[in-house]
Amino acid sequence: MSRGARLAAAAAGVALALAAPKLAPAIVTQLAFLWVMVLFALTWDVVGGQMGYTSFGNIVFFGLGAYCAAVVQRDLGLGYFEGLAVGMAVAAVLAVAAAFVLGLGLLGIRGHYFAIGTLGLGIAAGEIASGWDYVGAGSGMVTPLYPGPAGARDVFFYYYFLALAAACLLILRRLYAGRFGLAINAIRDDEDKAEAMGLRTRRYKITAWCVSAFFLALTGAGVGHLIGFIDPRDVAFAGPTYGVWMVLMAILGGSGTLWGPVLGAFVFHVTQELFWTYLLGWQRVALGLLIVIIVVFFPRGILGWARERWPERFGEVVEEGPQGGGGR
């Protein structure tokens, strides 16, 4: 595809995203959650795909963001938007601080041990929130009421998540193109060799987790207010749903790539919504089958599958063998 064609496609995509609430006002909430899914997949891939550390605990930063924004807004007595802005800022700072402290301990272990450790982290956070009366305990917490007319809240948060997803994509694109991207890819490929070459791996690993935590906290802050209610296990620290979905979406699209998680989030969210609409009662069975299909048939993701099938379209040179066979 030529540069002009890519620019035209990008412009059309941006125009469609901006006009979506006008074109489909009945499904604005679902469209807002589409960008939430994109953020889930992109932020998980920073650590899981680009750096090779499979994390099931990223949902902790999402939950921290949801609770921090709501509590600050409730307790400071500010107006809705002023309180929301302050709450989001506090949520982002606390999530990054939590990622730094947790990273000092957890990112010293590798492989399955790291995955299991982060899994326990998400479960522990859900249990703590469920027993803490200050945030509503197991009964959950109602967020402040949006001051605008009915439906305006969904449109507001649609554009909020769209802007956040665009910012996340552009910042990650910049990070992956520089020294940071090379460093975390080196950690994924061979961490011992990277350390032997003088790379301070712990510093890069913690930085990667902090980047992920920053965007997840801002996502959680928005989701809590979009739904209007924060449940400790089903929303804030929803490991079996959001926590697993962010992993699946990145794998489905192609982990370790920039656009793979975005593609995976689109495919997964649309498929999930179709299941919820047409397979009522069987939607969780169908979703379970979809998860199995993703893991078995797309271990390298859709982009990985496409790269193997059409390597020349991804800029890879295919050399003809002496007998006319192909080889790279």
Word description of this protein:
The structure is a single chain. This protein has a two-stranded antiparallel sheet. A two-stranded antiparallel sheet has the order 3-4. It has 328 residues and is mainly α. It has helices spanning 3-23, 28-48, 59-76, 80-106, 111-130, 152-176, 179-196, 201-227, 232-236, 239-253, 260-278, 283-297, 301-309; strands at 141-142, 229-230, 319-320, 326-327. The longest helix is centred in the N-terminal third of the chain and has 27 residues, at 80-106. Residues 324-328 have low confidence and may be disordered. It has a domain at 26-237.
Brief overview, please?
Its main location: membrane. With 328 residues, the protein is mainly alpha-helical. It has helices at residues 3-23, 28-48, 59-76, 80-106, 111-130, 152-176, 179-196, 201-227, 232-236, 239-253, 260-278, 283-297, 301-309, and strands at 141-142, 229-230, 319-320, 326-327.
